[in-house]
Structure prediction request, 77 residues.
Amino acid sequence: MANVTIYSTPTCHFCHAAKDFFANNNIEYTEADVAADPEKRAEMVELTGQMGVPVIKIDDDVVVGYDEAKVKELLNL
Prediction:
């Protein structure tokens, strides 16, 4: 199983859509609330060079935004 992390904020619609997708497909993930956790926010910015959410990290791949097709491809769904 892939190691999945989502960097998100509580008010982000696309973050909720991504988490719903993971739940509906029984994908375990770690959530990093970048609105509340400055260390995770800095980690996300270091990964991507920007502040937009969601950022989805699947193993060593990073998807900026909620691109369902790319997420499915990386998860082999």
In short: DSSP finds three helices and four strands in the chain. The longest strand covers residues 4-8. The chain has a mean pLDDT of 96. Residues 29-72 form one domain.
